[in-house]
Design goal:
With about 230 residues, the chain is mainly α. It has one domain. It has 11 helices and no strands. The protein is globular. The N and C termini lie close together (about 10 Å).
Amino acid sequence: MFLIQYLFTQPLFFVDWLLAVILALSFHEFAHALSAYWQGDSSVKDNGRLTLNPFSHVDWKGLVMLVLIGFGWGKPVSFYGQNLRDQKWGPALVALAGPLSNLFLAIVSGIVLRVILANTMLDFSNAGVMFLVLFMFINLSLMLFNLIPIPPLDGSWILFAILPDSLGGLKDVMRQKGPMILLGIILLDVLTPVSIFGALIFTPLINIGNLIVPNFVSYLGIAFGGL
């Protein structure tokens, strides 16, 4: 889905979506930095990543690509694994912090959304309600996408911590080939009717969303004009 179309057809929706993406990405990257800092790596603070300032976390080229083709990226947080107190699980905890922050934000926004819908006459035509629906959707999407165990996604760090040291060769191959595999899957999703990410992400996203906000899928349908 090319979000640029909404800039001209539904500008308020586009602004809400863009703000939700920037905030979700910023919290995600900040959570990585905070986890690394708590585990003993002060380099994230020295590099200016221990902040919620979006200008420190958003990769503007990645954001433009997200608007134009429906796929983008944030600015990765670099950390030094040797500075972490736990050499084996430390990197995995840094990686896991990003998706967990997105889950936390999705739950909080879902609770606020439920309260508003239950106690007011507001509906999706309201910019605040629209933002909450989009913010919840984007955070759940970021969480599920980043948990896919393909380098350089967060899920790969978790997988590497679980795999035994005897499979070090496999880990090296995955680190080398993972980005190309991920790029190939992305191109398939963007350029063809094949939807691998849709199968991996969309169904669990809807199920989790409906647990937080009943009939969440109906709000997504309104949001994206019949998604």
